[in-house]
Specification:
six-stranded parallel sheet; 41% helix; single chain; two-stranded antiparallel ribbon; 217 residues; alpha/beta
Length: 217
């Protein structure tokens, strides 16, 4: 019996790619580098600051330079992380229906607490999440299972009674490790070269409201 639905944040609940891309392009401008188009940023937006820095500056950065750029990117994003971020269509309708059915909902993201502690309350969720676990809440991010187990423990629901919805391979991996039913969000930040059909999700859906029919099965 499903008692809770847990979600990734970037690319699953919230469309954050434009603000992430804007932060990257401000950093690139400082370095005299050409901007990255939205079409290039979007599929990388779920993969974190390091991936976005590599997108803008290439794979040849040494570790020290890459880390310095990552820190500056984070500062740029911190200055404006709500400018164009929105919830995906259907998210609030889904959350309202989950609540009507008596199901808890929450967030397990690799985004750091530096941002989630402010972004999640700012987002116009019709009902606030029962739990929010960030990438640094337990010291390790997904695909490590610890964030999944921690979230389930906080809401007092065993992992096998939870659904986890995400748009990245690590989301599906983490959910499967702990025995959650895994759902791939096809509207998310999936790159053309990704092979989501090989990630092992239990189901995949094209719109948030598509989840509802699977909760009845």
């Amino acid at each position: 019996m499903i008692k809770a639905v847990l979600f990734d944040l970037d690319g699953t609940l919230a469309d954050t790619a434009r603000d992430l891309g804007a932060a990257l392009n401000r950093l690139l401008a400082e370095e005299g580098m050409p901007p990255q188009p939205y079409e290039a940023v979007r599929p990388m937006a779920s993969h974190g600051a390091r991936a976005l820095v590599r997108l803008g500056f290439g794979e040849g950065l040494d570790a020290e330079r890459a880390e310095a750029l990552r820190v500056r990117f984070m500062d740029h994003y911190d200055a404006s992380f709500t400018g164009e971020t929105t919830l995906f269509d259907g998210v609030n309708e889904l959350i309202a229906e989950l609540d009507r059915r008596g199901l808890a909902w929450g967030i397990i993201t690799n985004k750091s607490m530096r941002f989630t502690d402010r972004l999640v309350p700012w987002l116009p969720f019709v009902i606030p999440p029962a739990v929010t676990v960030s990438g640094d809440t337990v010291g390790v991010p997904k695909p490590d299972p610890k964030p999944m187990l921690y979230a389930a423990g906080l809401i007092g629901i065993a992992p096998e009674h939870c659904v986890y919805v995400g748009d990245a391979e690590r989301d599906i991996q983490a959910g499967r490790i702990v025995g959650m039913k895994t759902v791939l969000a096809n509207w998310g930040y999936i790159a053309a070269e990704d092979r989501p059909q090989e990630w092992g999700a239990d189901i995949d859906i094209d719109h948030p409201l598509d989840l509802l029919k699977h909760l009845d099965q």
